[in-house]
Amino acid sequence: MSINNNKVIIFDTTMRDGELTPGVKMNLQQKITISQLLEEMGVDIIEVGYPGSYQKDFDEVFQISQIIKNSTICGLASSNPNEITAVAEAIKPAIKGRIHTYTPVNLKNQSKLSQEEVLATIFDCVSLARNYCDDVEWSAFDAPRSEPDFLCKSIETAIKSGATTISIPDSLGLASPKEFSQLLQMIFNRVPNINEVVVSVHCHDDLSMAVDNSLIALSCGVRQIECAINGLGARKGNADLAKVVTEVLKQGNYQLEINTSLMSKAAELIFEITGIAKAK
């Protein structure tokens, strides 16, 4: 797999994680309008919803898959086979589709499952997704709080099972840039097949570090950043798309295919739909 080392992939989750913002709901027409603007901006991946959990999301992903031509349309699923199959069905009309599946890897306190069972789950869910789609992203949910050896083994398993993108989310937004970069460096040093995939980050803004953590990740080897317009997302939100793009471009050594002249239009559109303005 050839990975352009300077290209930074922008993954937008305004419509999926953004709908976890308290009080925010978007209808089909609004999501179509957002998707078309994101495509016009040159956003690489557009995550539309959670098709296996909500019929509304299934319909939205299915409809948008028929409209968008250049961006990749993505739906989220847990490791449940029915959810993965639902995403596969929903993205079927897309020219470019992605199945994004996640598995909790922090086994310290919430899980009685043995590590072997979780690794088998990762293998099964990623393999199933790959049967439907060549573009599969796997997320190590709650990576920063998981046990390092097991986290590395989980990532290695997901890659062996056919994942093409591995996402390391700061799921609870609790990592400092120093902690997050140490975590990423460990992964790049210890996962033997890490160079076969694109590594992504998905940072939450609980400590106002989402943008900083996303940017520091690039120097560790990460090449996809998951973000949202106006920083929409669960709790305090996600990394703000415009801030991420602006800061990446300032660094000068990365290639981004985003039409920055449309970013303020996107911010205004999201403000109109949700009442949430861009963070200052």
From TrEMBL:
Domain Pyruvate carboxyltransferase span(s) in chain numbering: 8-264
Matches recorded under InterPro entries: 2-IPM_HCS-like, Aldolase_TIM, PYR_CT
Family annotation (PROSITE patterns): PYR_CT
Keyword annotations: Manganese
PANTHER family linked: 2-ISOPROPYLMALATE SYNTHASE 1, CHLOROPLASTIC-RELATED, HOMOCITRATE SYNTHASE-RELATED
Record's protein name: 2-isopropylmalate synthase
Organism ancestry: Bacteria, Bacillati, Cyanobacteriota, Cyanophyceae, Nostocales
